[in-house]
Amino acid sequence: MTVTPYLALPRWPYRLGQQTKADHDTLALAKALVPMRYAGFVPADDPALRYGLALNDAGFFWEAHEILEAVWKVAPQRGRDRILLRACIQVANANLKLSLQRPRAAYRLLQEALSELDELAIRPPADVAGSFSEHFPVVVLASAIAHQLALEETERVLIQISEV
Fold first, then answer.
1. Which of residues 10 and 157 earns the better pLDDT score?
2. How far, in whole angstroms, is CA 137 from its chain's centroid?
3. Of 101, 104, 95, which is closest to residue 60 (Cα–Cα)?
4. What digits encode the pLDDT tens for the residues 92-106?
5. Contact at 8 Å (CB) between 88 and 96?
6. 130: left (phi over 0), alpha (psi -120 to 50) or beta
């Protein structure tokens, strides 16, 4: 499956603690799409950004983190796009932790992602046509995270009750 005009999904997902190594060839191609820096904002249609988001959606959580972090590193400092990228990185990390059966770590990461989205909500919009933070459905992501956190909290209460 091709997710950008340039790149297909990695050949396999990397799972921490397992024998398989990451598909470094595919990740290197994706990282090559990241510019040296973004001038003013991260474009919503940036191929590396879109690829990182698509990796998460396809279950390549570690790979998504790697690509999104590469974009984050060169995003404008103190900008709205950078805040949103941090939230997306935390979501990818949380998904990875869930896939590794580590719900407490995932819960913490989702709380951090939601905090980033709260920070984004209090910042005035940049009004930059085409920027990632102006086009991304932040409210939908915040709602999905809050829903997942509520499910996790309910699970914790049930576990605590059963341990009594």
1. 10
2. 13
3. 95
4. 999 999 888 898 999
5. no
6. left
